[in-house]
Design a protein that fits this description.
Helices cover 44% and strands 21% of the residues. The protein has one domain: Alpha-Beta Complex (2-enoyl-CoA Hydratase, Chain A, domain 1). It has a six-stranded parallel sheet, sandwiched between helices. A two-stranded antiparallel ribbon has the order 6-7. It starts with a helix and ends with a strand. The chain is built from nine helices and ten strands.
Length: 250
Amino acid sequence: MTETNETQQQSQGDEKPAVDPKSSIVNKIQELGQTNVPDMDASNIHCITIVGQIEGHMQLPPQNKTTKYEHIIPQLVAAEQNAKIEGLLIILNTVGGDVEAGLAISEMIASMSKPTVTLVLGGGHSIGVPIATASDYSYIAETATMTIHPVRLTGLVIGVPQTFEYLDKMQERVIRFVTKHSTIDEEKFKELMFSKGNLTRDIGTNVVGTDAVEYGLINEVGGIGQALKKLNALIDERRSEHTDGGEIVQ
């Protein structure tokens, strides 16, 4: 065998199999719920949308519009560790859903070191309330609404006293989180939660745009322009805090 043939065989053996771009896109959709992982080459802000019903441990029917928490969590982790991402915008239009999945998303947003801003469009109902309050600053559209009601349990219930205690503790977790990350006091939040408001044949309250701000749940009424302006201001503040004489402080 000549030296040329040996070189050709070695180069052929070193070649890696081509990656099918279609299969790569499918994998990204399955893992993250979207086609683009947050590399943020074009922008220093990553946007996450939480829409429809928040899906937890149980898979919802395919006709339901859902946000899967296993799609959101990897994006939050990627945004936190990616140096190119300086801020996170979370847009909500959700009817609520799984309480523990919603609280998990809320805790992750609240614990991020980078500036975060939430914007409620359409609705931020039920477990969407703590998610909306989890950011550094929150906005709500003037026509958007937030439904505040007690925690409910769906499915088979065994042992009424034990189930009530479980629901009561879970409800307290929601109340503590919301009151900690907003300016509404606990008594007012419980009053909204348990009052016979404008929910038909149910207890709870439906809060519209400006009312959410007046109660202290949301910081300000506004839209995408105001939200991005505020997020960029928070990013600038963080940059100034991490610099000293033009040098990055570790």
